[in-house]
Design a protein that fits this description.
By secondary structure, this protein is of the alpha+beta class. Helix content is 55%, strand content 18%. It folds into 2 domains: 3-212, Homing endonucleases (Endonuclease I-creI); 240-321, no CATH class. It has a 4-stranded antiparallel sheet. A 4-stranded antiparallel sheet has the order 7-8-10-9. It is rod-shaped. The protein starts with a helix and ends with a helix.
Length: 322
Protein backbone atom coordinates (compact mmCIF):
# COMPACT_ATOMS: atom_id res chain seq x y z
CA UNK A 1 0.00 0.00 0.00
CA UNK A 2 1.30 3.44 -0.92
CA UNK A 3 2.09 6.05 1.71
CA UNK A 4 -0.61 8.40 0.34
CA UNK A 5 -3.20 5.61 0.51
CA UNK A 6 -2.35 5.01 4.17
CA UNK A 7 -2.86 8.72 4.88
CA UNK A 8 -6.23 8.68 3.09
CA UNK A 9 -7.42 5.71 5.11
CA UNK A 10 -6.41 7.47 8.33
CA UNK A 11 -8.43 10.51 7.28
CA UNK A 12 -11.44 8.35 6.42
CA UNK A 13 -11.35 6.75 9.87
CA UNK A 14 -12.26 10.14 11.38
CA UNK A 15 -15.98 10.83 11.38
CA UNK A 16 -17.23 14.32 10.50
CA UNK A 17 -20.23 15.19 12.64
CA UNK A 18 -20.48 18.94 12.01
CA UNK A 19 -22.59 19.78 8.93
CA UNK A 20 -20.43 22.79 7.96
CA UNK A 21 -17.26 20.70 8.05
CA UNK A 22 -19.02 17.92 6.13
CA UNK A 23 -20.07 20.37 3.40
CA UNK A 24 -16.53 21.76 3.19
CA UNK A 25 -15.19 18.21 2.85
CA UNK A 26 -17.70 17.38 0.09
CA UNK A 27 -16.98 20.59 -1.79
CA UNK A 28 -13.26 19.91 -1.79
CA UNK A 29 -13.86 16.32 -2.87
CA UNK A 30 -15.98 17.49 -5.83
CA UNK A 31 -13.21 19.86 -6.93
CA UNK A 32 -10.53 17.20 -6.44
CA UNK A 33 -12.07 14.13 -8.10
CA UNK A 34 -15.58 15.03 -9.23
CA UNK A 35 -17.16 14.79 -12.68
CA UNK A 36 -19.94 17.23 -13.49
CA UNK A 37 -22.14 16.57 -16.53
CA UNK A 38 -25.14 18.33 -18.00
CA UNK A 39 -27.84 16.64 -20.06
CA UNK A 40 -31.45 17.24 -21.06
CA UNK A 41 -32.62 16.29 -17.58
CA UNK A 42 -30.24 18.61 -15.78
CA UNK A 43 -26.94 18.04 -13.98
CA UNK A 44 -25.39 14.81 -12.81
CA UNK A 45 -22.32 14.41 -10.63
CA UNK A 46 -20.08 11.58 -9.51
CA UNK A 47 -16.75 11.04 -7.80
CA UNK A 48 -13.98 8.89 -9.28
CA UNK A 49 -11.45 7.45 -6.86
CA UNK A 50 -9.07 4.51 -6.45
CA UNK A 51 -9.90 4.39 -2.73
CA UNK A 52 -13.01 2.30 -2.24
CA UNK A 53 -13.28 3.37 1.40
CA UNK A 54 -14.34 6.85 0.24
CA UNK A 55 -17.79 5.48 -0.59
CA UNK A 56 -19.09 4.56 2.91
CA UNK A 57 -17.57 7.76 4.31
CA UNK A 58 -19.30 10.05 1.81
CA UNK A 59 -22.49 7.94 1.77
CA UNK A 60 -22.87 8.47 5.52
CA UNK A 61 -22.47 12.23 5.15
CA UNK A 62 -25.01 12.47 2.32
CA UNK A 63 -27.47 10.24 4.18
CA UNK A 64 -27.24 12.49 7.23
CA UNK A 65 -27.49 15.80 5.35
CA UNK A 66 -29.87 14.88 2.52
CA UNK A 67 -31.52 11.60 3.53
CA UNK A 68 -30.39 9.73 0.42
CA UNK A 69 -27.94 6.92 -0.33
CA UNK A 70 -25.26 6.91 -2.99
CA UNK A 71 -24.39 4.14 -5.43
CA UNK A 72 -21.00 2.59 -6.11
CA UNK A 73 -19.79 1.11 -9.40
CA UNK A 74 -16.53 0.45 -11.18
CA UNK A 75 -15.56 3.35 -13.44
CA UNK A 76 -15.74 2.87 -17.21
CA UNK A 77 -11.98 3.37 -17.34
CA UNK A 78 -11.75 1.08 -14.36
CA UNK A 79 -8.14 -0.03 -14.66
CA UNK A 80 -5.39 2.54 -15.20
CA UNK A 81 -1.80 1.53 -14.49
CA UNK A 82 -3.13 -1.65 -12.83
CA UNK A 83 -5.25 0.44 -10.44
CA UNK A 84 -9.01 -0.05 -10.14
CA UNK A 85 -11.08 3.16 -10.07
CA UNK A 86 -14.54 3.40 -8.55
CA UNK A 87 -17.40 5.76 -9.41
CA UNK A 88 -19.58 7.14 -6.65
CA UNK A 89 -22.86 8.43 -8.10
CA UNK A 90 -25.29 10.88 -6.48
CA UNK A 91 -29.11 10.64 -6.82
CA UNK A 92 -30.49 13.10 -9.37
CA UNK A 93 -33.14 14.44 -6.99
CA UNK A 94 -30.52 15.91 -4.61
CA UNK A 95 -27.77 16.76 -7.12
CA UNK A 96 -28.62 20.46 -7.48
CA UNK A 97 -29.01 20.93 -3.72
CA UNK A 98 -25.62 19.35 -3.02
CA UNK A 99 -23.82 21.23 -5.80
CA UNK A 100 -25.33 24.52 -4.66
CA UNK A 101 -24.61 23.92 -0.97
CA UNK A 102 -21.02 22.95 -1.83
CA UNK A 103 -20.62 26.09 -3.99
CA UNK A 104 -19.87 24.06 -7.11
CA UNK A 105 -22.79 25.61 -9.00
CA UNK A 106 -24.23 29.07 -8.57
CA UNK A 107 -27.75 30.11 -9.50
CA UNK A 108 -28.45 33.66 -10.57
CA UNK A 109 -30.92 35.58 -12.74
CA UNK A 110 -28.70 34.75 -15.69
CA UNK A 111 -28.94 31.02 -15.02
CA UNK A 112 -26.68 28.39 -13.51
CA UNK A 113 -22.91 28.70 -13.73
CA UNK A 114 -19.90 26.76 -12.53
CA UNK A 115 -18.19 28.36 -9.55
CA UNK A 116 -14.41 28.18 -9.62
CA UNK A 117 -12.14 28.39 -6.59
CA UNK A 118 -13.07 28.02 -2.95
CA UNK A 119 -16.09 29.78 -1.47
CA UNK A 120 -14.99 31.67 1.63
CA UNK A 121 -18.33 30.94 3.29
CA UNK A 122 -17.46 27.23 3.36
CA UNK A 123 -14.22 27.77 5.27
CA UNK A 124 -15.27 30.19 7.96
CA UNK A 125 -13.08 28.71 10.73
CA UNK A 126 -10.06 26.45 11.21
CA UNK A 127 -12.18 23.30 11.55
CA UNK A 128 -13.88 23.80 8.20
CA UNK A 129 -10.52 24.71 6.60
CA UNK A 130 -9.03 21.45 7.87
CA UNK A 131 -12.06 19.53 6.60
CA UNK A 132 -11.54 21.10 3.18
CA UNK A 133 -7.86 20.12 3.15
CA UNK A 134 -8.85 16.58 4.16
CA UNK A 135 -11.21 16.38 1.19
CA UNK A 136 -8.49 17.61 -1.15
CA UNK A 137 -6.02 14.97 0.08
CA UNK A 138 -8.57 12.15 -0.15
CA UNK A 139 -9.61 13.31 -3.61
CA UNK A 140 -6.32 14.06 -5.36
CA UNK A 141 -3.44 13.74 -2.90
CA UNK A 142 -0.50 11.57 -3.94
CA UNK A 143 3.01 10.98 -2.66
CA UNK A 144 6.30 9.54 -3.88
CA UNK A 145 7.37 8.71 -0.32
CA UNK A 146 8.36 5.07 0.09
CA UNK A 147 8.99 3.79 3.58
CA UNK A 148 11.89 1.40 4.14
CA UNK A 149 10.94 -2.24 4.51
CA UNK A 150 12.01 -3.18 8.03
CA UNK A 151 14.80 -0.64 7.70
CA UNK A 152 16.63 -2.89 5.23
CA UNK A 153 16.11 -0.98 1.98
CA UNK A 154 17.33 2.43 1.04
CA UNK A 155 14.50 4.27 -0.71
CA UNK A 156 15.45 6.05 -3.91
CA UNK A 157 12.77 8.72 -3.55
CA UNK A 158 12.78 11.90 -1.51
CA UNK A 159 9.91 13.48 0.39
CA UNK A 160 7.16 14.65 -1.94
CA UNK A 161 3.41 15.20 -1.59
CA UNK A 162 1.29 16.72 -4.33
CA UNK A 163 -2.27 17.60 -5.34
CA UNK A 164 -3.12 17.46 -9.06
CA UNK A 165 -6.08 19.21 -10.68
CA UNK A 166 -7.26 20.66 -13.98
CA UNK A 167 -8.42 23.77 -12.14
CA UNK A 168 -5.69 26.25 -11.20
CA UNK A 169 -8.11 28.33 -9.11
CA UNK A 170 -8.85 25.32 -6.87
CA UNK A 171 -5.15 24.75 -6.19
CA UNK A 172 -4.59 28.46 -5.56
CA UNK A 173 -7.31 28.39 -2.93
CA UNK A 174 -5.87 25.22 -1.41
CA UNK A 175 -2.43 26.83 -1.35
CA UNK A 176 -3.84 29.79 0.60
CA UNK A 177 -5.48 27.44 3.09
CA UNK A 178 -2.20 25.63 3.65
CA UNK A 179 -0.37 28.93 4.10
CA UNK A 180 -2.84 29.89 6.83
CA UNK A 181 -1.41 26.91 8.76
CA UNK A 182 2.20 27.86 7.87
CA UNK A 183 2.54 25.07 5.30
CA UNK A 184 4.30 26.41 2.23
CA UNK A 185 3.64 24.84 -1.17
CA UNK A 186 4.25 25.60 -4.83
CA UNK A 187 2.13 25.24 -7.97
CA UNK A 188 3.45 24.32 -11.40
CA UNK A 189 1.91 23.17 -14.71
CA UNK A 190 2.36 19.58 -15.84
CA UNK A 191 1.13 18.69 -19.33
CA UNK A 192 -2.60 19.53 -19.30
CA UNK A 193 -3.01 19.83 -15.51
CA UNK A 194 -1.63 21.79 -12.57
CA UNK A 195 0.18 20.39 -9.55
CA UNK A 196 0.49 21.80 -6.04
CA UNK A 197 3.45 20.16 -4.33
CA UNK A 198 5.29 20.10 -1.00
CA UNK A 199 8.86 18.78 -0.82
CA UNK A 200 9.99 19.87 2.63
CA UNK A 201 9.78 16.88 4.98
CA UNK A 202 8.87 18.98 8.02
CA UNK A 203 6.07 20.71 6.08
CA UNK A 204 4.77 17.32 4.99
CA UNK A 205 4.72 16.18 8.62
CA UNK A 206 2.81 19.36 9.54
CA UNK A 207 0.27 18.61 6.79
CA UNK A 208 -0.20 15.03 7.98
CA UNK A 209 -0.63 16.18 11.57
CA UNK A 210 -3.14 18.81 10.43
CA UNK A 211 -5.41 16.23 8.77
CA UNK A 212 -5.12 13.88 11.75
CA UNK A 213 -2.93 11.21 10.13
CA UNK A 214 -1.02 10.59 13.37
CA UNK A 215 0.27 7.12 12.48
CA UNK A 216 1.60 8.41 9.17
CA UNK A 217 3.40 11.23 10.99
CA UNK A 218 5.09 8.67 13.25
CA UNK A 219 5.97 6.43 10.28
CA UNK A 220 7.44 9.36 8.37
CA UNK A 221 9.39 10.51 11.43
CA UNK A 222 10.83 7.00 11.83
CA UNK A 223 11.70 6.94 8.14
CA UNK A 224 13.48 10.29 8.40
CA UNK A 225 15.44 9.06 11.43
CA UNK A 226 16.34 5.82 9.61
CA UNK A 227 17.53 7.66 6.51
CA UNK A 228 19.46 10.12 8.65
CA UNK A 229 21.23 7.29 10.46
CA UNK A 230 22.01 5.59 7.14
CA UNK A 231 23.50 8.80 5.81
CA UNK A 232 25.73 9.14 8.88
CA UNK A 233 26.87 5.52 8.58
CA UNK A 234 27.48 5.89 4.84
CA UNK A 235 29.56 9.03 5.41
CA UNK A 236 31.59 7.23 8.07
CA UNK A 237 32.12 4.20 5.82
CA UNK A 238 33.10 6.45 2.93
CA UNK A 239 35.54 8.27 5.19
CA UNK A 240 37.04 4.98 6.39
CA UNK A 241 37.34 3.71 2.82
CA UNK A 242 38.95 6.97 1.74
CA UNK A 243 41.46 6.70 4.58
CA UNK A 244 42.21 3.09 3.65
CA UNK A 245 42.78 4.11 0.04
CA UNK A 246 45.11 6.90 1.12
CA UNK A 247 47.02 4.48 3.39
CA UNK A 248 47.41 1.93 0.59
CA UNK A 249 48.48 4.54 -1.94
CA UNK A 250 51.03 6.03 0.48
CA UNK A 251 52.39 2.57 1.33
CA UNK A 252 52.76 1.67 -2.36
CA UNK A 253 54.71 4.88 -3.03
CA UNK A 254 56.94 4.23 -0.03
CA UNK A 255 57.62 0.59 -1.01
CA UNK A 256 58.34 1.60 -4.59
CA UNK A 257 60.79 4.29 -3.44
CA UNK A 258 62.53 1.91 -1.01
CA UNK A 259 62.89 -0.79 -3.69
CA UNK A 260 64.24 1.75 -6.17
CA UNK A 261 66.81 3.01 -3.66
CA UNK A 262 67.82 -0.56 -2.82
CA UNK A 263 68.29 -1.35 -6.51
CA UNK A 264 70.25 1.82 -7.25
CA UNK A 265 72.51 2.33 -4.27
CA UNK A 266 71.46 -0.23 -1.66
CA UNK A 267 69.59 0.44 1.56
CA UNK A 268 72.84 0.37 3.52
CA UNK A 269 73.75 3.67 1.90
CA UNK A 270 70.86 5.34 3.68
CA UNK A 271 71.30 7.01 7.07
CA UNK A 272 70.68 4.57 9.90
CA UNK A 273 67.41 6.17 10.97
CA UNK A 274 66.02 5.81 7.42
CA UNK A 275 67.27 2.24 7.10
CA UNK A 276 65.17 1.30 10.13
CA UNK A 277 61.90 2.64 8.75
CA UNK A 278 62.65 1.28 5.25
CA UNK A 279 63.07 -2.26 6.57
CA UNK A 280 59.96 -1.81 8.76
CA UNK A 281 57.89 -0.75 5.76
CA UNK A 282 59.10 -3.60 3.54
CA UNK A 283 58.16 -6.08 6.24
CA UNK A 284 54.69 -4.53 6.75
CA UNK A 285 53.60 -3.17 3.39
CA UNK A 286 49.84 -2.92 4.08
CA UNK A 287 49.93 -1.34 7.53
CA UNK A 288 49.12 2.26 8.40
CA UNK A 289 51.57 4.54 10.17
CA UNK A 290 49.80 3.91 13.46
CA UNK A 291 50.17 0.15 13.04
CA UNK A 292 53.84 0.49 12.05
CA UNK A 293 54.55 2.36 15.26
CA UNK A 294 52.87 -0.42 17.27
CA UNK A 295 54.96 -3.07 15.48
CA UNK A 296 58.27 -1.27 15.86
CA UNK A 297 60.62 -0.47 18.71
CA UNK A 298 61.24 3.00 17.32
CA UNK A 299 60.49 5.78 19.74
CA UNK A 300 58.80 8.00 17.19
CA UNK A 301 55.59 9.92 16.83
CA UNK A 302 53.35 9.45 13.81
CA UNK A 303 54.56 12.79 12.51
CA UNK A 304 58.19 11.77 12.99
CA UNK A 305 57.67 8.48 11.14
CA UNK A 306 55.91 10.27 8.30
CA UNK A 307 58.80 12.73 8.09
CA UNK A 308 61.32 9.89 7.63
CA UNK A 309 59.24 8.41 4.80
CA UNK A 310 59.13 11.82 3.11
CA UNK A 311 62.94 11.90 3.25
CA UNK A 312 63.06 8.44 1.63
CA UNK A 313 60.69 9.58 -1.14
CA UNK A 314 62.86 12.66 -1.69
CA UNK A 315 66.01 10.53 -2.05
CA UNK A 316 64.22 8.28 -4.60
CA UNK A 317 63.15 11.32 -6.59
CA UNK A 318 66.71 12.65 -6.65
CA UNK A 319 68.04 9.28 -7.82
CA UNK A 320 65.41 9.11 -10.58
CA UNK A 321 66.36 12.60 -11.64
CA UNK A 322 69.99 11.53 -11.91
Amino acid sequence: MSFAKEVKLEILEQEIEDSIEATAFLSSLFHACGNLNKNSEGFSVDLVTDTKEVFPFVDKIVKKLYGENLSLSISDDHIINKTIYYKISFPSNITMSILTDCSILEQSTEGISFKEGIDGNLICDDSSKIAYIKGAFVGCGTSSIKLSELGSKLPTTGYHVEFASRHHSFLEGLQSLLESFNIISKISPRKNIFVLYIKDSESIKDLLALVGAVTSVLNLSNEMATRGLRNIINRQVNCINANISKTVEASLRQVEAINYINKKIGLESLPEDLQEVAVLRLANQEESLDELLKLSTLKLTKSGLNHRFRRILKIAQILKGE
